[in-house]
TrEMBL record:
Entry-linked Pfam families: YfiO
Highest taxon in the source lineage: Bacteria
Gene3D superfamilies named among the record's database cross-references: Tetratricopeptide repeat domain (1.25.40.10)
Outer membrane lipoprotein BamD-like domain boundaries: 27-170
Source organism of this protein record: Chitinophaga cymbidii
The protein's name: Outer membrane protein assembly factor BamD
Length: 264
């Protein structure tokens, strides 16, 4: 406690000083000691004073990292972005570009929440990879993109599953099919297609009689696509059951139509 009080008194004394070089040296000292809040306070005052000088780059670099180390990723990302705009030719540009993208990654929320920052992180990481394909951070950036895509995939799956559980089978079918198309390399891609078949079948089954035939035909077409795309899927037999049910129902409906016409 004595040490903290002593530091605070020292900071207040330095803040009152007109010796700018002394202030900067003290800010750097606090930064090196990982007292980022104290360093940030001084850097913030010194930024407009040293802007345009040779000391500005190092000052602003540490200032941006103060926010990062304090886990204020919104502010850190903002400052990393400003750094790149102000100093695009800096030898630290690659590092800062990655850090900007990494801040979006750290701001990516849990699956149920809005994923705007997740999508920004993916886009920023991809831009970094495109700009610096030989960077030692490229492999890490690819791993982060994959993790973030898994998060988006899970959110989309949860939405599709909710439609299905609520009995909104048409919306569920469309959503599961979109999932399969959006994440074709997913190890769950065949299960998304299978759930689309299942949802479309239930949608047809619960439709009014005049619409059932065309909707069962959708099930048939979805299964044929499934069979062609995933010939070795463990779900193929289950999917085929809905295919056969749909075909039998189409045949029954056609027979009923034939009987009605013969009676007329």
């Amino acid at each position: 406690m004595v040490s903290a009080a002593s530091c605070n008194r020292e900071l207040r004394r330095i803040e009152k000083s007109n010796d700018l070089e002394k202030k900067l040296a003290y800010a750097d000292k606090m930064y090196e000691k990982k007292k980022y809040q104290m360093a940030q306070t001084l850097y913030e005052e010194l930024i407009p004073i040293f802007k345009g000088t040779e000391k500005f780059e190092g000052l602003y670099y540490k200032y941006a990292y103060c926010s990062f180390y304090l886990k204020d990723y919104t502010q850190a990302g903002f400052h990393f972005k400003n750094y790149l705009e102000a100093l695009p030719s800096s030898p630290r540009a690659m590092e800062i570009d990655y850090q900007q993208a990494y801040c979006y990654y750290k701001l990516s929320p849990k699956v149920p929440l809005d994923q705007t920052n997740t999508m920004k992180a993916i886009a920023s990481m991809q831009t970094f990879i495109n700009s610096y394909p030989n960077s030692e951070k490229t492999a890490e950036a690819n791993v982060i993109i994959e993790l973030l895509r898994k998060k988006l995939e899970q959110k989309d799956y949860n939405a599709a599953e909710l439609y299905y559980n609520l009995g909104h089978y048409k919306s569920a079918g469309v959503s599961f099919k979109s999932l399969m198309r959006a994440y074709p390399d997913s190890d769950k891609s065949d299960s998304y297609k299978y759930m689309a078949i299942k949802a479309y079948y239930l949608y047809a089954k619960n439709s009014i009689l005049p619409r059932q035939k065309e909707r069962y035909e959708t099930v048939v077409n979805e299964y044929l696509e499934f069979s062609d795309r995933y010939p070795s899927s463990k779900l193929k037999d289950d999917a085929e059951k809905y295919y056969n049910l749909a075909k039998n129902n189409i045949k029954s409906l056609e027979n009923e139509q034939t009987k009605e016409k013969s009676i007329q």
